[in-house]
Amino acid sequence: MGSDYPIGTVALYGPTDSLATKLVAAIIPAERATPTAMKKWFSENSDIREDATVQSELSVFLKAQNVTRAVVTEEVIGCPHEEGIDYPKGTSCP
Prior knowledge:
Layout: E1 7-13, E2 22-28, E3 37-42, H1 52-64, E4 69-76
Parallel strand pairs: 1-4
Antiparallel strand pairs: 1-2, 2-3
């Protein structure tokens, strides 16, 4: 039986629990390892899950990393803002 790694992870973020405006994919190369590659996609006002270009780019990214399987969040799991990028470190998300 072959290795289960690398694994792709896909997480959805958005301003509400029903609108995903950010998608983040990461590659986990081995058990308990930190990600070796990560890619982010953004959408201003439309749901990123409906964007065929993003879906195609995500597929290409995962295939290029030779993932054996992917884990995808079923729901929007948080806001799309990043500490230190969208707002100062140590403060709350706007």
